[in-house]
Every structure is written in C-alpha cells, then in structure tokens.
C-alpha cells in the first residue's frame, strides 16, 4: 500500500486555547492512538491534502522530532462552513496486528450485458477489509466481463487469501440491470 509522509511536531498543551492558536497558525491538531499512550501532535493543513482529498487509500508515515510512526487515518473532522480540517485522528500500525480499512473497488473489463444495452450499477465503491498492514491492497479489482443483463457480482467472487472482506456473502458489488432502451428493443423484437 502506498504511503504519505506527514511531518509534524509534538504538542505540550492540549487545551482549547492552545488548539485555537494552532488552527489560527494554519496547523491541524492530531492524535495518534494505538500505542502505549496517545501521542498529541500538530502538522500543517497542506500536508493532509494528498491523504484526505483523494478516492485512493494511503497509509501515513508520521515524523515527529526524529521519531517515525506508521499509521492509518482513523477519523477526520471538518469545519461545518468552510470545510477546513479541524482535527485528525490516526491509528498506529504494527506489523503483527491486523487492521480494518475501507479499500476502493476498481471495476475491470467490459460487461457483455452492457454491450447489448444493459445498465451497469456500481453498488459498492469501497469494501471493508481486515488484514495485516503488509497485505493491505491499494484497491480490489472486480472483473465484470462475464456479467449479462440481470447478473450480479457478489463479494464472494472477490475473496483473497491475503485479506478478509468484512461484508456478508450476499453483498452485491456491481450488477447489470435492464435499461429502458434494452427493454424497448426486447419488446420490439418480440413483435
């Protein structure tokens, strides 16, 4: 999985006044959970742009005064009016501890049902996956080549030994439905 480096500095004071002063200086207060104790730090708001405003999923390498932590974005809070980042929570990654993340689904292939007039519906754009950090994929490929009109692609076809998909087996990832044009053409063909 791809990683983004965020450079920051540890915070001593974590009160309201100190947090407000950080935000006025263009910094974002952050917390890193998962270790022995939470690590409070701050980083520039611009450093989060490639991590937050993208459909892709990344891990974060956090550098704080010479110490490096591998982490994943757990929660983010935005300002309700101007959408600036107010607070970010990270969860520390360990090589021997499984982590749960939402991984994007990428459809590949050309569906036979779409070629004859069906409509493709991409029901799930992200899947909740549990795996060791080394086995986390950048994305999950779903091959839709064999889908005819009325067929569905279930989560069970995307199973992999490296990770566990945390959705029920009957969850639909994509399906090809009958479009209005295909229904009209089928009705005319029957006449």
From TrEMBL:
This protein's GO CC annotations: cytosolic large ribosomal subunit
Source organism superkingdom: Bacteria
GO MF, any single term: structural constituent of ribosome
Keyword terms, alphabetized: Ribonucleoprotein, Ribosomal protein, RNA-binding, rRNA-binding
Single GO BP term: translation
Keyword Ribonucleoprotein applies: yes
Annotated Large ribosomal subunit protein bL25 L25 domain residues: 6-90
Gene3D superfamilies: Ribosomal protein L25, beta domain, Ribosomal Protein L25, Chain P
InterPro entries: Rbsml_bL25/Gln-tRNA_synth_N, Ribosomal_bL25/Gln-tRNA_synth, Ribosomal_bL25_b-dom, Ribosomal_bL25_C, Ribosomal_bL25_long, Ribosomal_L25_dom, Ribosomal_uL5_bac-type
Domain Large ribosomal subunit protein bL25 beta: 99-179
Subunit field text: Part of the 50S ribosomal subunit; part of the 5S rRNA/L5/L18/L25 subcomplex. Contacts the 5S rRNA. Binds to the 5S rRNA independently of L5 and L18.
Function: This is one of the proteins that binds to the 5S RNA in the ribosome where it forms part of the central protuberance.
PANTHER family the UniProt entry points to: RIBOSOMAL PROTEIN L25/GLN-TRNA SYNTHETASE, ANTI-CODON-BINDING DOMAIN-CONTAINING PROTEIN (PTHR33284), RIBOSOMAL PROTEIN L25_GLN-TRNA SYNTHETASE, ANTI-CODON-BINDING DOMAIN-CONTAINING PROTEIN (PTHR33284:SF1)
Stated family: Belongs to the bacterial ribosomal protein bL25 family. CTC subfamily.
Full protein name: Large ribosomal subunit protein bL25
Organism: Tenacibaculum caenipelagi
Encoding gene per record: rplY
């Amino acid at each position: 999985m791809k990683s983004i480096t965020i450079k920051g500095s540890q915070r001593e004071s974590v009160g309201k006044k100190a947090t407000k002063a950080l935000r006025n200086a263009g910094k974002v207060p952050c917390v890193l959970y998962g270790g022995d104790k939470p690590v409070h730090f701050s980083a520039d708001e611009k450093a989060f742009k490639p991590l937050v405003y993208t459909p892709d999923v990344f891990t974060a390498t956090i550098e704080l005064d010479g110490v490096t932590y591998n982490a994943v974005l757990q929660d983010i809070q935005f300002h309700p009016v101007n959408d600036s980042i107010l607070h970010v929570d990270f969860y520390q990654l360990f090589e021997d501890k499984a982590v749960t993340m939402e991984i994007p689904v990428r459809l590949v292939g050309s569906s036979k049902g779409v070629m004859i007039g069906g409509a493709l519906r991409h029901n799930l754009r992200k899947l909740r996956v549990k795996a060791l950090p080394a086995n986390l994929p950048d994305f999950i490929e779903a091959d839709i080549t064999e889908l005819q009109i009325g067929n569905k692609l279930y989560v069970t076809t995307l199973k992999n030994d490296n990770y566990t998909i945390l959705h029920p087996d009957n969850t639909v990832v994509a399906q090809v439905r009958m479009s209005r044009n295909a229904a009209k053409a089928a009705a005319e063909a029957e006449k």
